[in-house]
Amino acid sequence: MTGITLHLSVRGLTDADLPSCAWAGSPGHVRELAHQIRRAEAGEVDYLAVCTPVGLPVAVGGVDYTVRPGAGTLWQLGVHPALRSCGIGTLLIRSAEQRIGARGLTRAELGVEEDNPRARALYERLGYRAFGREPDSWDVEAEDGSLRRYETMCTLMRRDLA
Are 152 and 159 in contact (CB under 8 A)? Predict the structure, then answer.
C-alpha cells in the first residue's frame, strides 16, 4: 500500500477561502462563514482553516468566546469528506485549543449531536468528557434555496486545558 504525506498549516479563514469551501455545506452555510470571518476580525471568535500547501482549506471550524464565560466553545467543525479519518480533525481541534489557551482560558467546550457517535469518539479520544445535554437547532438550506429548521439533541463536552 502506498502512503501519501500531506503538509498542512492552520490559519484564520479568509474571504478568499470561501469559494473553496463548498464542501463544508450549503451555499447559505458558506455565506454564513463570511459573517464568522467578520466576528473573528472583531475578536469574538477564531475561525480556523486547515490548508494544503497551496492554501486550499480542507477543514474549518470555529471557537466562540461569547458562549460561556471562561471557555472557548468549538463549533462548526468540519473536514473535507474525502480526507476524513486522516488526523486532520485532530489537528483542527488541537489548533483551536491552542487559540483558547492563548487567550488565557483553560477550558474548551463543544456540543456533539447524539446521533454522531463517530465524532463523539474522536472528542473522547482527545480528552473531552460529557457534562450535560441541550437541544440545538439551525436552518438548513435545500437545493432549491428553501430553508427548514433542523432540530437535534447534543451532548455537551469539555476538556480542561490547564
Answer: no
Distance CA 76, CA 37 (A): 13
Per-residue pLDDT tens digits for 13-60: 999 999 999 999 888 899 999 999 999 999 999 999 999 999 999 999
| Residue 99 vs residues 26, 79, 107, 121, 140: alpha-carbon distances, Å | 27, 19, 11, 23, 29
Indicate yes or no: pTM above 0.85. yes
Please give the average per-residue pLDDT across 115-128, as a whole number: 97
SS3 assignment, position 94: helix
Query: Crossing angle, helix 88-102 and helix 117-125, to 10 degrees?
Result: 60
**CA 1/CA 124 separation, integer angstroms:** 30
Task: Identify the burial level of 67 via C-beta atoms within 10 angstroms of its C-beta, where 0-12 means exposed, 13-18 middle and 19 or more buried.
Answer: middle
DSSP state of 53: T
pLDDT of residue 1: 63
